[in-house]
Amino acid sequence: MRAWKARRQEEMALHAPFPNKQYGIIYADPPWDYKGQLQHTGVGGKESGGAIRHYPTVSVSEMATWDIAAISEENCLLFMWSSSPHLDQAIALGKAWGFQWATVAFVWDKLSLNPGFYTMSQCELCLVFKRGKIPQPRGARNIRQLVQSKRARHSEKPDEVRERIEKMFPHQCKIELFARKQTRGWDVWGFDIQSAP
What we know:
Blueprint: H1 2-14, E1 23-28, E2 39-40, E3 47-49, H2 60-63, E4 72-82, H3 87-96, E5 100-114, E6 121-131, E7 146-148, H4 159-168, E8 174-177, E9 187-189
Parallel strand pairs: 1-4, 1-8, 5-7, 8-9
Antiparallel strand pairs: 2-3, 4-6, 5-6
């Protein structure tokens, strides 16, 4: 019990308060909890890591208590990454944060395969949720859903997705939650932020 409390205090210290600002676009890559499960490269293959080896994961029940509505404008879109095993939890989390489920915004083909329990896994989904109406003014409306980009470090998402969101909504205030680096034109929040190259 003492070890659990120490870990919780450490995790809470990693998460700074949210900015005192509201946004029309929120982009999130939650640190989904896989309950310590590791990834494998297949029969006879080596263990290739798991989320817990790279960053502190957070339970959906805890994330659901976070006041994302406080940083959301009246009309706001939430773009949220979800691994396939967490799809139902991602939809529930978006709703807990005060958004309505809309659709799949992006499908990322990682151009590589991972073993799965049912089929070979190679895609990840970026969902979109809506609070109020779609923010105005809008930019490009011909943005494609499929993103084909080779995966990089663990959990790092392709910059192209963020760039496509910028083209769709060039005028809105934007924040990236659980960001890994600073990005021009975006506010960022997360414990793993590194300086832009």
